[in-house]
């Protein structure tokens, strides 16, 4: 069984939303988690010796903004700690799929979602992730019968993602759809592996945000993207692509999509 861990990231200011998924096999995740926890333990040992607040987990946005448990950190300290975590990721042949869209582009092509666009955005991004994983992992001849389960960070879009997943499993154009097993929400308190999904979602979001503004990629993401096993990362869905999705929808498919996104008539948030 393969397991993929999903998290989102984004910014109201830049109008971007990113959904990332990192996938590994059972044995890979077992050893990965041990190494990730060693990094947290090592850092907490340092913080404890200095009489400073210890970490309960890694949280990318808090770390980048130096808030909450990362309050008082220096830039060099943050870079060192993030480097430890990235080196763990680099030691394991995991697969990452990450897609970003601009909410303004989405609303331009789907004006029905103007008041509540994020549900629809999560659906379209999950569809792209599942399409990529179906081809990249389940389509690999080395794993002809392995199945794939997905775990996402618990939040407001739990039912939206579950319904989108179920619709994708019924989509005959999705490669190896019968081998997508389940999707379920979990909290970071119960799943340390969601921390790496959080890191990758944030780094991919910042990658697209910086490139949209004409800036270079962050060094931390470059270290990850250099890996041959990683694909579908730092990809932004362009407005033309979103328009093409709309144009291909039948009226019935559109009705189901809007209902799933909670933007159809009579649906509650």
Brief characterization of the structure:
This protein is of the alpha/beta class and 269 residues long. Strand 4, helix 6 and strand 5 form a beta-alpha-beta unit. It has ten helices and six strands.
How does this structure look, described?
- With 269 residues, the chain is α/β, with parallel strands linked by helices.
- It has a single domain (2-260), classed as Nucleotidyltransferase, domain 5 (2-Layer Sandwich), CATH 3.30.420.
- The chain is 49% helix and 16% strand.
- It has helices at residues 26-49, 60-65, 75-90, 103-109, 117-136, 158-169, 194-212, 219-225, 239-248, 251-260; strands at residues 2-11, 16-25, 95-102, 148-153, 180-186, 235-237.
- Strands 5-4-1-2-3-6 form a six-stranded mixed β-sheet.
- Strand 4, helix 6 (158-169) and strand 5 form a beta-alpha-beta unit.
- Helix 4 packs parallel to helix 9 (239-248) and helix 5 packs across helix 6 (158-169).
- The chain starts with a strand and ends in a 9-residue tail after the last helix.
List keywords for this structure.
single chain; 6 strands; 269 residues; 49% helix; six-stranded mixed β-sheet
Strand content: 15-25%
Residue runs with pLDDT of under 50 for 5 or more positions:
228-232
Q: What is the CATH class?
A: Alpha Beta
* Major beta sheet summary: 6 strands, mixed
Give the class from helix and strand content and strand pairing: alpha/beta
* Helical segment count: 10
Question: CATH topology, which one?
Answer: Nucleotidyltransferase, domain 5
CATH architecture type: 2-Layer Sandwich
Q: Per the principal axes of the C-alpha atoms, what is the gross shape?
A: globular
Radius of gyration: 19 Å
Sheet with most strands: strand arrangement: 5-4-1-2-3-6
What's the average pLDDT?
90
Order of helices and strands: EEHHHEHHEHEHHEHH
Rounded to the nearest angstrom, the distance between the terminal CA atoms is 34 Å
**Which oligomeric state applies?**
single chain
- Please tally the β strands and state the result: 6
How many structural domains in the coordinates? 1
Helix content: 40-55%
